[in-house]
């Protein structure tokens, strides 16, 4: 807590200092000024919590200082110490927020009491200010999330509760929006470098692009940008449309989108594709405008040089019925992967991509169907491999899926001119399936070579307490898988193999008269002598004692 004492008489300021136990009040700094003007400059610099001031001073008196404090620093608590019992001065003190009016000579108890009350009020108000600031910060943090939710919900059609208009009223600059145009920034059109850079931090990419677009649109209150919570790959751009000619409207939207794209390039070294919807009433028509923007993006021809800005035109939107037929190539692709032959994979992928090369036009919608068909094919393969993958080592089980492999989905594979790069697509597709094929082959070899290692492990650790779960954990295999594979490769159950090894070792030990039966049992891994004897007799037809006598 800081205090400022204001009085033109030095001895009065010193008396105030000496009459109060400042440390007990929690005061850490005491500053002095000789008049109101000097005090105002000092207060701006040190920001005290309490000011103790005289009323009649040269240059600027106490009433003027109190008036200045009331307008500029209302949070500061004010105490007056005056030698004049004047109604005009007392009333002025109350009018300007002074809490106590003390008369000279100063009574120490009165001054201490007034300071205690002032300091307590300052702390109470400070807590309230901090609470209000925290609430304000929380609201400011939630506002973008609420705005994203409200404007994303518009895409479902309508805004019966007027939430969108209500959200706009909280904007720094508000103009009643009656007509809008929705554009869509397509994150899938990002360069491969940007897609890779933000693969593990997608939210940061959303935040960066939304802020860039929002800053451009807010200049002149032209619109706003927000994240589309209904889609994983879109940012929504709402333009407030002025009544006027369509040409002027189109030029304005095009200019703003170009500015946004150039800002994106400066920040990320990447430009994006935008679908531009139709002019619609706001908020009820926002969903229709959005659907038109999406249709424009779906219809863009990926085989021609990239345009970046795609405007919806119902007369030009074409049907995208033709799609590469994966069902005709799936079996050859699957057999190539199973073969492990790089050449067979290359040939199978080449035949599949060749159909795409023959197409005169490939729309974004067609390519998306291709990616969907490819993903569905992979899912069918995973399901077919589920039984096998269940028993593989953990690391190999992940590799048998797509973790860590360059799956050819996500950002559009485009060449330097922004056209669909079929050569690059074929390369990525081939490399992915080759990597998957090799991972399957490696996993299969590892799983097959694991069984001899399991047998050696049992032979070396037979004298310890071993369970099927212990052995499976040691080799990162499932119990079911290791049990099944051990039987297939050795013709013997794993537990039977362990018992046989133990009993063979026990036979050698029983031939020595120096070991008791209980000691032999413990040495070959049986803690219970009776159970050992039972297992021994089951496998040899003799009890341990009988075997010892026969081989003495």
UniProtKB/TrEMBL annotation:
Residue stretches making up the HTH araC/xylS-type domain: 452-550
Record keywords: DNA-binding, Phosphoprotein, Transcription, Transcription regulation
Claim: Methyltransferase is one of the keywords in the record: no
Family annotation (SUPFAM superfamilies): CheY-like (SSF52172), Homeodomain-like (SSF46689)
Domain Response regulatory, first and last residues per copy: 2-119
Classification via InterPro entries: CheY-like_superfamily, Homeodomain-like_sf, HTH_AraC, HTH_AraC-typ_CS, Sig_transdc_resp-reg_receiver, Tscrpt_reg_AraC-type_HTH
Keyword Phosphoprotein on entry: yes
Name used for this protein in its record: Response regulator
């Amino acid at each position: 807590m800081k205090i400022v004492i204001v009085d033109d008489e030095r001895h009065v300021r010193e008396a105030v200092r000496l009459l109060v136990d400042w440390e007990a009040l929690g005061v850490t700094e005491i500053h002095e000024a000789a008049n109101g003007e000097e005090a105002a400059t000092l207060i701006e610099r040190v920001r005290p919590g309490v000011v103790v001031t005289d009323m009649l001073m040269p240059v600027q008196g106490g009433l003027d200082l109190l008036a200045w404090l009331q307008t500029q620093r209302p949070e500061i608590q004010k105490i007056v110490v005056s030698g004049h019992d004047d109604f005009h001065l007392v009333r002025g003190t109350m009018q300007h927020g002074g809490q106590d009016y003390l008369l000279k000579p100063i009574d120490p108890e009165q001054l201490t009491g007034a300071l205690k009350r002032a300091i307590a009020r300052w702390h109470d108000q400070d807590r309230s200010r901090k609470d209000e600031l925290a609430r304000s910060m929380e609201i400011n943090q939630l506002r973008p999330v609420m705005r994203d939710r409200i404007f994303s919900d518009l895409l479902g059609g309508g805004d019966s509760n007027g939430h969108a208009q209500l959200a706009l009223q909280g904007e720094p600059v508000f103009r009643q929006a009656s007509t809008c145009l929705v554009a869509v920034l397509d994150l899938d059109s990002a360069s491969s470098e940007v897609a890779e850079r933000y693969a593990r931090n997608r939210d940061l990419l959303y935040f960066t692009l939304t802020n860039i677009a929002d800053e451009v649109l807010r200049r002149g209150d032209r619109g706003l940008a927000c994240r589309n919570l209904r889609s994983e790959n879109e940012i929504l751009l709402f333009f407030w449309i002025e009544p006027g000619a369509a040409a002027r409207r189109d030029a304005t939207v095009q200019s703003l989108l170009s500015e946004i794209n150039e800002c994106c390039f400066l920040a990320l070294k990447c430009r994006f594709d935008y679908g531009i919807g139709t002019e619609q009433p706001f908020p009820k028509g926002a969903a229709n405008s959005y659907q038109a923007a999406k249709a424009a993006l779906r219809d863009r021809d990926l085989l021609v040089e990239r345009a970046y800005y795609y405007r919806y035109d119902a007369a030009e939107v074409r049907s995208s019925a033709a799609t590469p037929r994966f069902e005709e190539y799936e079996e050859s692709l699957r057999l190539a992967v199973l073969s492990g032959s790089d050449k067979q994979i290359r040939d199978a992928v080449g035949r599949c991509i060749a159909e795409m090369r023959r197409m005169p036009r490939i729309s974004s919608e067609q390519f998306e169907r291709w990616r969907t068909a490819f993903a569905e094919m992979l899912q069918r393969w995973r399901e077919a491999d589920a039984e096998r993958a269940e028993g593989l080592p953990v690391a190999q089980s992940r590799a048998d899926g797509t973790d860590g492999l360059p799956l050819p989905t996500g950002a559009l594979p485009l060449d330097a001119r922004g056209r669909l790069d079929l050569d690059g697509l074929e390369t990525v597709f081939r490399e992915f399936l080759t990597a998957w094929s090799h991972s399957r082959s490696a996993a299969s070899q590892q799983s097959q070579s694991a069984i001899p290692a399991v047998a050696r492990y049992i032979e070396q650790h037979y004298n310890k307490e071993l369970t099927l779960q212990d052995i499976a954990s040691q080799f990162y295999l499932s119990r079911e898988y290791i049990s099944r594979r051990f039987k297939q490769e050795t013709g013997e159950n794993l537990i039977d193999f362990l018992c046989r090894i133990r009993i063979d070792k026990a036979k050698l030990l029983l031939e020595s008269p120096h070991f008791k039966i209980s000691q032999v049992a413990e040495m070959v891994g049986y803690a219970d002598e009776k159970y050992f004897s039972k297992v021994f007799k089951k496998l040899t037809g003799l009890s341990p004692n009988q075997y010892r006598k026969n081989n003495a």
